[in-house]
């Protein structure tokens, strides 16, 4: 991108109001929540669709973000 890391962080903060990694994490979790609510995909497929290597790392990140496991979150929406 030909920008310094600090400049990219500054641009991200101006655009999204948060650091770039937090913005990416938020986008991944928003997509995962939509897939959990509106699809019947298995958790492993959702984990892969939002960029996690495995269901365990996805579950850990999802739980940190929402306070619930992906399965519990899905069940609470149905």
Give the topology, please.
Elements lengths: L4 H12 L3 H19 L4 H7 L5 H12 L3 H7 L2
Helix pairs in contact: 3-4
Description:
- The chain has 78 residues and is an all-alpha fold.
- 73% of the residues lie in helices and 0% in strands.
- It has five helices and no strands.
- Helix 3 crosses helix 4 (55-66).
- The radius of gyration is 15 Å and the shape is elongated.
- It starts with a helix and ends with a helix.
- The relative contact order is 0.12.
- The model has no long low-confidence stretch (mean pLDDT 93).
Class derived from helix and strand content: mainly alpha
Task: Give the biggest beta sheet.
Answer: none
- String of helices and strands: HHHHH
Could you say which overall geometry the principal axes of the C-alpha atoms support? elongated
Helix content: over 70%
Strand content: under 5%
User: Distance between termini?
Assistant: 43 Å
Task: Please outline what is shown here.
With 78 residues, this protein is an all-alpha fold. It contains five helices and no strands.
Keywords:
mainly alpha; 78 residues; single chain; elongated
């Amino acid at each position: 991108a030909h920008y310094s890391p600090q400049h990219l962080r500054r641009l991200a903060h101006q655009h999204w109001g948060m650091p770039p990694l937090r913005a990416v994490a938020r986008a991944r979790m928003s997509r995962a929540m939509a897939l959990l609510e509106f699809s019947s995909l298995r958790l492993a497929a959702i984990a892969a669709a939002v960029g996690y290597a495995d269901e365990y790392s996805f579950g850990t990140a999802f739980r940190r973000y929402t306070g619930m496991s992906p399965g519990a979150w899905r069940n609470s929406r149905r």
